[in-house]
Amino acid sequence: MSNKYTFPKDFKWGAAASATQTEGSADAGGKAKNIWDYWYEIEPERFHEGIGPQVTSSFYSHYKEDIARMKAIHLNSFRPSISWSRLIPDGVHVNEEAVDFYNRMFDELLANDIEPIVNLYHFDMPLNMQNKGGWESREVVESFRFYAETAFTLFGDKVKKWTTFNEPIVPVEMGYLNHYHYPCVVDMKRAAVVAYHSMLASAKAIQTYHELNQGGEIGIILNLTPSYPRSESEGDVKASQIADLLFNRSFLDPSVHGTYPEGLIELLREHDLLPETDKQDLEQIKNNTVDFLGVNYYQPRRVKEREKKFTADEVLPEMFFEPYIWPERRMNPYRGWEIYEKGLYDIAINIKNHYGNIPWYVAENGMGVENEERFLDETGMIQDDYRIEFYEEHLKWLHRGIKEGSNCFGYHVWTFMDNWSWLNAYKNRYGLYRVDIETQERSLKKSGQWLGNVAKENGF
Length: 460
Fold this sequence. Notes:
Layout: E1 12-16, H1 19-22, H2 35-42, H3 59-72, E2 77-79, H4 84-87, H5 96-111, E3 115-121, H6 127-130, H7 138-155, E4 161-166, H8 169-176, H9 188-212, E5 217-223, E6 227-229, H10 234-256, H11 262-270, H12 279-287, E7 292-296, E8 301-304, E9 322-323, E10 330-332, E11 337-339, H13 342-354, E12 360-364, E13 369-370, H14 385-403, E14 408-413, E15 428-429, E16 433-435, E17 442-444, H15 446-457
Parallel strand pairs: 1-2, 1-14, 2-3, 3-4, 4-5, 5-7, 6-8, 7-12, 12-14
Antiparallel strand pairs: 8-9, 10-11, 13-15, 16-17
């Protein structure tokens, strides 16, 4: 029986993970503290069930068996991140224990024919860099460039696909527009500086990578949330355009086109939110665009024009639009997110039509569910048919986008095995493999079996 949905030759099937969420050994192997280690130390009650980042899924010590598990389900690619505070604990000197760990991990992936796509920054600012101002500081931007160069030099013979940032809008939104990431600042002017410096840091890393001539490619991973207006009314459409400018195009346009959208610049200028820029920065951003794009897609954003005046003293994104509940929406009740598979197709066509059809891949797509133990069968396998349906419906829409000419080269799920998730710890599980957090034992879920078959067949 032939597959109804076949994907392009050499399509990348895999999973994504991040250092802080999976490595564990947070205070071992010469690693210094990052903002998560520190925040947990001072406010452990903020973290679900009081679980911090010390152990997570212990990938640091179990990477060999975990990579064998990836191989067992036919994954041909994996996207981990490097921990900046592990590799360069004091911001200056390289930690040889970290070099040894990452070299062994990359060797193991390559020995199993699994391509590493390696990300440099996944929300885990080293504490010593945060103490200098984090992304508000030009010095930290330069330190990031040094960290990137160090990683390229050390591992560039093994890694041929790099990304600078994962979801750079998230530290902006969660750390500077609300209280879900440290440093819990609510100040849109400072948020704009953080966003701008992140983009500048990305451009500097891209320039450095290309100057090293290692024969690979470098991109960025953005979480794109298509912004759908409630209606075609002028107010609703404008609300959706502003949401799109703030949450998507603020990173997408400079990353791919090398320029910021005029509408975004005007909006920030009008509300006195423009960060200080100089000609040299803007030249650097213009001349160092990405070779490819990673896209994380979980949910759409539905908005309408504000119906009642925004009353807060400071300027915040909510000033310009408010959420709208689409009557036909389907929800993942555990995460509070709408499930809208067609959004992935809309992203595919948007990249094709407005971003030069740049090569891109789905860098994360997944479904977090609470209390998955409810679905354990007598063999010890979690029967997560809801997750299979989630993947399948997204892949159908992705396939359609590819068929219509969008240049997508892969699909990665979040995540390979259940992991620790920031303030939520282990509340929502996403993995293809279940992790028993008491014993650290792994067991394959039904969705892992299903995706493994899709990867093997290159379709379904």
